[in-house]
Amino acid sequence: MSRSDRTHLHQIFPLEEFGDTLVVTPAGDAAGFHLPHVHAEMSAAIDFFDKAQLKHLVFDLSRARYFGSQVLGQLIVFSQKVKAKGGRVALANPSTEMLDVLRIMKVDTVWEVFPSRSKALTAIARRPLSTHLVQFGRRSFPVVLLGCLGAAWWYWPRRNLDHHYHDQLLGIYRESRQLLDTNPRDQDWDQHLTKSRQQLEKITAELETIASSQREALRRMIYCSRDYLFPALQDKLKLDSYPHFMFFQEMKAGEHEMGEPVKTLSETLRPEGLTNPRALPANPS
User: What's this model's pTM, rounded to 2 decimal places?
Assistant: First the structure.
């Protein structure tokens, strides 16, 4: 897949080309974006689709379990434009909860549904020649593949990846909290944000390579590194920041999924008074 410099800047609707097909991997509504950002990025995505003369569209919903009306409305509008021109539109990796929501909203027939991105692309995309050449190369050199698998077997069992990425994320959080406690200058905080974002992008890229549905703890770490920690830092770790709240929710959930307990639980760093600003007030009895 290829990603242009321009679309690499997208945070709500990252775009990737696959032959004659555009793959959009939307962030969930929980990522903390405002409606003007959603509209602006989707408008740019539609413009990119038209100018690149693409034909089909795949929405990969693996980044979140739920997508609210803001994002769903944009997906429907984009889908209708593509279908009106004779293209096919698919959903990949939808959660069970999301499928239920689509059925309730009576929009589940808008898209073809596939359990994974690869199956969606296999079904609807005209694959570029380079992809076929890569696959041919993989079949032609089994010895190289076996060597890579052997190296992976030698290295990975000696490293607890759940703990490794858990500790890295807590380290970034701890360093950020310590810096904020010193009341840093705006320039110093901006430099810290830039460094943290680069670290989180690297962590996310690694996690998306090794995580799977069988490694729920690592999937939770992806949500933390990709969707919550950086927006929380942008909020300066305020106690009423939704990304800040969700970071600790997902970290705690990931800890419960780990086979071996971690040395430092995320709860030990959770600030007192951290609340969910989207929680509905309790009804008076």
Answer: 0.49
